[in-house]
Amino acid sequence: MSFSSLEPLSLRSLLYYCLSPSIDLRFLTSIIDAVQTFQVSKNLKLEDYLDFTLPLLSGLNVSQEVGTGRTLALKNITSKVCSYMKENAGQFDVNFPVLEEHIVHQILHQPSLTNAFSLVKILAAVDSNVTRVSEVNILLLGSSMFDYLQDVQ
Asked: Which of 115, 121, 118 shows the shortest CA–CA distance to 62?
């Protein structure tokens, strides 16, 4: 049975499990690895992969304190997703508008600043050359980017 035959509803259930406060954070990395393996083997559609990973990055409840377990987990997951997208740049490059829309959608739901930064980092990792982010989305993200730039200083 392929992972995509489990349908997005199963991925949604897995996402809710990953976002639960009782999850052992060590499992998150393993779950991301498994989901990425299924996606590479073409048993998981790109849309389903994005529908899982981006809400996870957006919704993982983290503390603003550096070094807490959930903050470190978010950082590790973000790094894994960025690395995965860079390694598989071809499919994300071709589908950049889909990725862009998914990320903008998550950011417009106003996650915590830490979570929004993770999403921006992914967008920047895939859009590393001349920007392809649409002008409309740049305008939509303007206030989020302003907060980001203030925090970076």
From this structure: 115
Domain ranges of the chain: 3-152
Of residues 140, 75, 52, the one with CA closest to residue 101: 140
Residues 6+ apart with CB under 8 A from 67: none
C-beta of residue 114 within 8 angstroms of C-beta of residue 64? yes
Q: What are the tens digits of pLDDT across the range 83-128?
A: 998 888 777 766 788 888 899 899 888 888 889 889 988 888 887 6
22: CB partners within 8 A, 6+ apart: none
d(CA 80, CA 33) in angstroms, rounded, equals 8
3-state secondary structure 11-24: HHHHHHHHHCCCCC
CB 63 within 8 A of CB 23: no
* Interacting residues of 32 by C-beta distance below 8 A, sequence separation 6+: 53, 56, 77, 80, 81
Task: Give the residue among 87, 66, 69 at the shortest CA–CA distance from 21.
Answer: 69
